[in-house]
C-alpha cells in the first residue's frame, strides 16, 4: 500500500497547478539574448552595428533574468530543504564549473590559477542568485525593500573596495531587479493586470515603439556611447571611479540605467508569446544553456575567427542566428541527459544523516525547480 506525500495532497475540488507558458518563453528569450551578447562581443571592437546590438541587449537581458528569478523566490524564513538547495543547486554546480574552467585554462594557456573567489566568465550570476536567496528574507523584514535595494545598488558604485570577489559588486548592482520581481509577485500585479494573458494591440505597439526608440538612440549616438564605454556600465560591476566617472552625480547614471532596464524589460515581456510555442519547453532548461554555452563560444572567440576582417553585417546576423541554434541545442534532451551530473548534481555525501539532524531528514534528489524558478522537466 502506498501513500501520497503530504506535499502532493490536494484538497477536494482543487485543480492541479498549471504551468504558465509565458514564463518559460521569457526565460528562453532571456537566455538566447545572453548567448547572443557573448557571441558578438568580439565584433563590437570593429563594427558599430555589432556595438548597437550589443548595447541593446545588455541594457536589459540580465535584469530580465533577475526579475524572473525574483518573481519565483520566497522571502520567508528558509526551511532546511531550501537551505540545502542553495548548496545543491548553486554552490556545488558553481564549484564544478569553476573547476572545469580552471583545468581548461591550464590545458590551453599553461597557467594554473586556482581562485574560486573570482568567478569565471558567466558564473558570476550563479553566485548572485545564491546571494539573492540568502539576503531576501532579511530585506523582506524592512519597510520599502525595493527602495533599499536601489539605494544599495546605487551606493555600492561609490565603494571602490567592493569588487568582483564572489560576484558581490555585481550582485548588489542588479539586486533591485531581483527584488522587483519578488515584489511583483507579492503585489499581485501579474494576476491583477493580466500580464501573462494576451496583450492588447495598443500595448504591443507601445512596446515596439520603446524598443525601436532605444535602438534609434543607440544608432544616432553610437560614437559617443563607444567613447564613454557605455557597455561597462551595463555590467553593474566596476565602481564609478573604475568606470572613469568619480563625480558625485555618477550614481544618477546608474539610477537612470536601472529605470531604462525596467522599461525595456517590460516592453520585451509585452511582446513575448503567452501561448505554448516551440521555445516553451526549451525555457525549462535555461540553466543548462546559461552554464554550458560559454564552453561552446570560448574556443570560437579565442581562435580569432570572430572580429577584425570578419566583422561585417553578414557575420553579425550569422552569429545571432547561430546563438539561437546553440541555445536550442544546449536545451535539448540529449544534452541535458549527458550533462545532468554537472548541472543537477546529487551530492548525498555532503549532508549529515537524518538521525543526526534536528530538522528532520534532508532528502537529496533532483530539485523540481532550477535557481531561476523554472520547473524542470
Terminal-residue CA separation: 27 Å
The total tally of domains equals 1
Compute the number of strand runs: 0
User: What can be said about the biggest beta sheet?
Assistant: none
Q: H/E order of the elements?
A: HHHHHHHHHHHHHHH
Helix residue percentage: 55-70%
Gyration radius, rounded: 21 Å
What is the mean predicted local confidence, pLDDT? 88
Would you kindly provide a written description of the structure presented here, covering whatever features stand out?
- By secondary structure, the protein is mainly alpha-helical.
- The protein contains 15 helices and no strands.
- It has helices at 21-39, 48-58, 61-71, 80-109, 124-139, 145-156, 168-187, 189-192, 201-220, 222-227, 230-233, 250-271, 286-302, 313-330, 333-343.
- The model is unreliable at 1-14 (pLDDT under 50).
- Helix 6 (145-156) runs antiparallel to helix 7 and helix 6 (145-156) crosses helix 12.
- It has one domain.
Please provide a brief summary of the model:
The protein has helices at residues 21-39, 48-58, 61-71, 80-109, 124-139, 145-156, 168-187, 189-192, 201-220, 222-227, 230-233, 250-271, 286-302, 313-330, 333-343.
